[in-house]
Amino acid sequence: MDLVIKELNKSFNNKHVLKGINLTINSGQIFGYLGRNGAGKTTSMRILMDVFEGDSGSILMDGKEFKPTDHRIGYLPEERGMYSKFKVKDQLVYFAELRGASKKEAQHSMKKWAEEFGIAIYLDQKLETLSKGNQQKVQIAQAFICEPDILILDEPFSGLDPVNSKIFQDSLLNYIREDRIIIFSSHQMGYIESFCDDIAIINDGKIVLDGDLNDIRKQMGEGKLRLRVADQRNLDFLAAYDYTIEKEDIILTLHPNETKRSFIEGVFSQGIELTMFMDYLPSLQEIFIEKTGDQNEKA
Predict the structure, then answer these.
(1) What is the pLDDT of residues 172-210, one digit of tens each?
(2) Are the CB atoms for 78 and 36 separated by under 8 Å?
(3) Cβ-proximal residues to 252 (8 Å cutoff; 6+ apart), any chain
(4) pLDDT exceeding 70 applies to what percent of the chain?
(5) Best exposed site among 97, 158, 229, 255 by fewest CB in 10 Å?
(6) What does the alpha-carbon distance between residue 87 and residue 94 come to, in Å, rounded to a whole number?
(7) 33 close to 198: Cβ distance less than 8 angstroms
(8) In the chain, ranges of CATH 3.40.50.300 domains
């Protein structure tokens, strides 16, 4: 399955929210979708679900017009939208039936995912009586119910402790199949780096970066080195270079046309002892900050 978004535009009250975005999302993996608050992530995801209609552009599934009604779409929104006064089991069955399940199918799927996420003991309780973490697990179970072929997760780790985060990670990885598309959005960059092969960063309604994460890291680290010296008190040998210091590590940019070999030979000729030397691969957080200009965004 290949989901292709072409030149998608959307405005609200004369504010241009999506500005001709282009994306290709492949099944069989987890696609990381990143952006600052208000960048357009949620709007684009809701257009996929037919909550909003794009002003122009197209969405294709395997080369044909994408019709949300032809697919089961599971969605975990960042803002929580379940009913606090109703029993957990009744809500899960309700959401399953909204996705076209029969009563019997809904009951079966409800029990399966309640067991998967450890909420079976809470099925007869009202949602408001549960802890924040258990409420989040109910929300997650709702997204998975009826085995959607398109699963959209927006900040799914919010409110989960380390144990439940691990349970969710395992469930998510086990859910990957060639006939399923998973879109994962989070400000916790470590999870994106762990799960996702392909990513896209949206900023001010435009896709500013997309592709294979490993390839992006190599490309953006090209011409840079990470090194460590035995004595960091004397860094005069780096005076002609552009560099930054991260704790004990030095991130250095080579001169144009300079090779790693020539740099090392020059360092050794000055009697400098290196204790670590490697190609620099920027973290996803560093990439995100460079592409969005947000120095305050936290991983």
Answers:
(1) 999 999 899 999 998 889 899 998 999 999 999 999 999
(2) no
(3) 224, 225, 226, 227, 238, 241, 242, 243, 280
(4) 98
(5) 255
(6) 11
(7) no
(8) 2-217
* Average pLDDT over every residue of 143-164: 92
Longest CA–CA separation in the chain, Å? 77
| Among 238, 72, 40, 20, residue whose Cα is nearest residue 154 | 40
Select from 1.10.287, 3.30.70, 3.40.630, 3.10.450 the CATH code of 224-279.
Answer: 3.30.70
Q: How far apart are CA 291 and CA 287, in angstroms?
A: 6
Structure tokens at 109: 């799927």
Tell me where in the chain the CATH 3.30.70 domain(s) lie. 224-279
- Length of the chain counted residue by residue: 299
